[in-house]
Amino acid sequence: MAEVIDIAELVGKVSISSQISTNPTLRRTNRIRTIYSSLAIEQNTLDIEQVTAVLSGKRVLAPPKDIAEVQNAYEIYENMDKLNPYSIDDLLKAHSIMVKGLVNEAGEFRSRPVGIVDGDGNVLHFGTLPQYVPQLVKELLEWTETSDIHVLIKSCVFHYELELIHPFSDGNGRVGRLWHTLLLSKWNPLFAWLPIESIIHNNQAKYYDAINTSNSNGNSTVFIEFMLSVIKQALQEAVMTNNVKTEKRSKADARWNVISDFLETHDYIMNSDVQKLLGVSSATATRILTGFMKAGKLKRIRVKSHWGYVKH
Fold this sequence. Notes:
This protein is mainly alpha-helical and 312 residues long. The chain has 13 helices and five strands. The protein has two domains: 2-242, Orthogonal Bundle (Fic-like fold), CATH 1.10.3290.10; 266-311, Winged helix-like DNA-binding domain superfamily/Winged helix DNA-binding domain (Arc Repressor Mutant, subunit A, Orthogonal Bundle). The chain has helices spanning 2-17, 24-41, 48-55, 64-78, 88-98, 133-146, 151-165, 172-187, 196-202, 204-217, 221-265, 271-278, 282-294, and strands at residues 115-117, 123-126, 269-270, 298-303, 306-311.
């Protein structure tokens, strides 16, 4: 598929230039977006500010169930790197944490038949009969591990097939999206921090349409195409965000070069000097100088009744 080639190229661009895998602030922001989005798809009522507050240990007035879902999801996503994507035990462990304290069969395959319904209560399809679930999940994991198909495609297939089997009494969607991300992260670690779930949430109707159409067609092609488009969009956003940050860094570097050159021939630089050199207002000059102080490049000294700045 052309999408696979495009995605591979985007992965290269993001891997080379982005701080997505190393910047703690960016990682946390993306992790919060991921958790909020995956839970919002399942009708969790917390908004992203509330999710952030819960994960910061603050008190939030919301249904205890919704708060527990956030805490559980955070716990398993934070420990995702310890999971073996081909282990049935780890799949059950992930489910156990994801729905801890929320369902009776946490960490277990469901014991009863289930019908999957849409928002209007219409039955879309029936999950696999419970007596066949363990073997089908085992075979799915084995196929995922041994298949020569590119991981971009087989991770989509796994996601779709897990939803089709519907192995758990609750939490199938959350676990399916987690495992999709896990499989991709074993191919390239940046996927552990890429908020793919956020793009799914923004296209939630299309997500369910892709599942339903694939069910009707008897194959996962439509769902694969949808998920590849989602992955591509997430990577494109990462590239665009990085480009903006690069432009800002370039502007900051250019400003520092001007100030640094000035200080080569002067004992100090003042706000008025920065205004003239960079063509900015007094307030902007203050922000620039303060920024370089925070970065450890400048320190402030007293020059009569004014402030001057010298290299740190």
